[in-house]
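Bench notes, afternoon.
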Amino acid sequence: MRKILGLCAAVAISALAGAVLAADKPAAPAAGAAPATAAKPAAKKAYKCDEACLKGWMDNYLQALQDNDPGRLPLAKNYKFTENGATIPIGQALWVKFIALGKYRQDFFDEETGGVASYLSYTENNLTDTPQPGLLSVRLKIKDGKLTEIETIVSRGNRNGEALANIDPSWTEAWSREEPVGKRLNRKELINASMNYMRSIALHDGKIGNFHEDCQRVENGGITAIAPNGKPVVPLGRGPGGGAPPAANRGGAAVAAAAAAAAQRGGDAAAVAAAAATAASAPLPPPPPAAPPRPDFTRMGCGPQIDALFVSFIQGFEDAHIDLVDVKRQVTFGSFDFMRRGHIISYTYNGQKIPGGTNANAPGEGLNSEAWKFVDGKIYRVAAVFPAVQTYGRGNGWPGTKPFLRPVDDTAGGRMELYLRPVAKKKWVDPAKK
């Protein structure tokens, strides 16, 4: 009997195991049906951020900057932060000195790459009772909900910032306006046209830039180029002064000198008075010849100003990168370094010899944050924020173009006077072999 019960139990267990295995085994496909495929894991949803979202990122970043709280920022593991071309940990430099946001702000967007940038005014601590104003350029790049790139360019002590809060509304309207579809450059064309701006200045050829006849350029809050009949969006600066001091001042100085000399010789009051009267009645020397008036380069327009060699102190550029492209508005934004060799003595315009100036007498680089607005495919507006001149060849901390330089001995057809040292060609002698 026990054997029979054991045999029955074994049969039951074997049947149960077979049922379990059959349940785990997938059913065979019906005749003519395609074989079943293994289920794939759900794809990660792409992070999308439109203009309103990008503006929110900039709002939150600037609020964190004002609150001195970099810890709240959602930074990517390998994020990069630069200030004026130097790569540093976030929370240093400007973050230490920042006080408050100003009243001026202009935003730029690129939904395709997740980029947003702003020009804005601000104040920082100057360790005095008076906060120091400035202009700031901030560019952010967002990927998968994290900040991967933060590029800041600071123009410290710049008092034009707050004045930009009252800039003519046409300036803001131009940057915000969407251009007709049929007159738009595509993304690649906009990038190349922006690069042509730099090439135009480096090669001293305004035609390369393809400037609009009503082009206007505002750099660090001041107009540096405007069409002859253009409407300034901010007040134009005062023109250069000069000339000899007034004749009365020279006469007064002569009288005082004659009286002092008479008194020193020990003369009495009558002698002193006579000497003073004689000096006062003497004819004044003729004033030195006045220098010819300096051309109004600002009012020439963007292209003609370049042709006139006004920016001849710039001989090239490097590390150019166009980070934001807004095809709808025909706006681009990027940064680069203008290169200055420091050997421009003077240049000639309409027969007038003009000194190269302080911008031309020492090697250096100008780190520029720049935005361009195109109308009908031409450069219509240019905006820039930049710090003081930096070390030659330093770069801006971001990968970009290699140095693009005009020849060192290029005189622009004899219109530029250069400081060129003669080359003493001698064979190198290894000191160890003497």
